Amino acid sequence: SRRGFLIGMAGAAAGAATTAAVTAGLGAAAPAAAAAHAAGTAARYEFHGAHQAGVLAPVRRSTSLLALDVTAQGAAGLTELLQTITDTARFLTTGGAPRELGITAPPSDSGVLGPEVTAGGLTVTLAVGASLFDGRFGLASVKPSKLRPMEDFPNDALDRAICDGDLLLQFEADDNDVVIHGVREVLRATRAGMQLRWRRDGFSSPPRPSGTPRNLMGFKDGTANIDRTDAKLMDQLVWAHGGQAEPAWVEGGSYLAVRVIRMLVEFWDRVGIEEQQQMFGRYKGSGAPLTGSSEFEDPHYERDPNGDSIPLSAHIRVANPRTPGTENQRMLRRAFNYDGGIDANGNLDQGLIFTAFNQDIERQFVTVQKRLIDEPLVDYISPVGGGYYFALPGARDASDWLGKGMFA
Ligand code: HEM
Fold first, then answer.
1. Which of 316, 327, 328, 361 should be mutated for ligand 1, with most atoms under 8 A from CB?
2. What pLDDT score was predicted for residue 109?
């Protein structure tokens, strides 16, 4: 009803305050989102900007990653597809309410959410894969320089059916139904232009009991991440810059590494806690480094040169040795858990959807991944899919669309 809709709009106004908080300082976003949720409204992330909102936004509870191949024909077909994705994402992430000018009531067929007007903390992030630049769309000369299909690393068990793709769409929201609604609406609007290639859904857990959410090995995951509120650091480690090494249009975008990493959880659950902690270099309970006692303190490698406390082979020490010259290898990690049921042998199919944003995927993700090849953890994990993508720069305003710069 009209009245119900107006109440919905009051919620949207509250959401706008959250948007301001999110835009002003991402550090404030998590509590703001929690408060908004408790009040029955949902957080809203500003769609327009130099960057796509989903890159720096905090990890929300629910995600779906969809890799797609473009079936639209030529540059004109791809342009129309990207415009439609942008328009639909803009509409959904603003709660489906104020569409450009004028206000539209929620459609009577508003997907799986019924008549509710909600942004639900949704972000829709669009990234492109190397195959988009293969010549079908006349884009070969503007490919981000480091973009390529994902290689097999030693110990990988990649199923090529769940690797790569022309496009990657990541939906992320506070609740599963909002994610599914977003997925369905975007696919409905674009059916003629793209075909699903693979999909993986993930979730993030509440803090237990506090601090950073845990992965399915029971360890807090994300503790030592880079500070996404530090704009200068993001310029050095996350955002790609147009210039000599890259085409101009990449400015404000970011290389995205996705790794679907199965965890051999039955095997892991038979390992004692001491040995588990040695593998990561952190305490399972608190998440503190084994040289300390609180989650967010730095590991003290200088006091532990031989690895008596934190083994030299521990995951955190290999991934980020904190030695001069390795600072620029750091990346923005955004990990999700997944639970895919059981495999053909009756084993649990669970693991981590590892995603990381990089200014330069070779200098950061690939360098670190190569160092991790021999870590003890490799016996308990099995990377099965993923890919390298380039998250497009943001859409600046209502007339802009994701990927427009590629056609300039
Ligand atoms: C840190 C788990 C894969 C890079 C951590 C931590 C855990 C963890 C528990 C410590 C807490 C934290 O700072 O987040 C896992 C698991 C993985 C996995 C279970 C696979 C299933 C990867 C991959 C990479 C990576 C593929 C990159 C190639 C890092 C980095 C850190 C880290 C850079 C931070 C180290 C530091 O700065 O101290 N990971 N990780 N991880 N991981 Fe992973």
1. 316
2. 61
Asked whether 173 lines ligand 1 (CB < 6 A), one says: no
Specify the range with the lowest mean pLDDT, choosing from 17-21, 201-205, 280-284.
17-21
SS3 state of residue 126: strand
Q: Where are the strands (E) in 88-247, listed by range? A: 123-129, 167-173, 194-203
Quote the ligand 1 centre to 316 CA distance (angstroms). Answer: 6
Q: Which atom of ligand 1 is closest in space to residue 217's alpha carbon?
A: 19
More confident residue, 8 or 264: 264
Question: Which whole number is the average pLDDT over 73-101?
Answer: 85
Compute and round to an integer the Cα radius of gyration of the chain. 21
Task: Please work out whether the CB of residue 237 comes within 6 Å of at least one atom of ligand 1.
Answer: no
Q: How confident is the model at residue 107 (pLDDT cuts 50, 70, 90)?
A: low
Digit-coded pLDDT (tens) for 183-218? 999 999 999 999 999 999 999 999 999 999 999 999
CB 240 within 8 A of CB 359: yes
Please state, in angstroms and rounded to a whole number, the distance separating the CA atoms of residues 53 and 249: 18
Task: Using the Cα atoms of residue 198, residue 372, residue 59 and residue 25 in order, give the sign of their dihedral.
Answer: negative
Q: Whole-angstrom Cα distance, residue 152 to residue 383?
A: 9
Q: For the chain, give me the number of helices (H) and strands (E)?
A: 10, 9
For residue 145, count other CB atoms closer than 10 A to its CB: 13
**CB of 336 closer than 6 A to ligand 1?**
no
> Mean pLDDT over all residues of the chain?
89
Two tokens at 96?
Answer: 């489906």
Distance of CA 285 to the CA centre of its chain: 26
Note whether ipTM > 0.90 here: yes
The bridge status of strand 194-203 relative to strand 254-263 is: unpaired
Pick from 225, 265, 315 the residue to mutate for probing ligand 1's pocket: most ligand atoms within 8 Å of its CB: 315
% of the chain at pLDDT higher than 90: 82
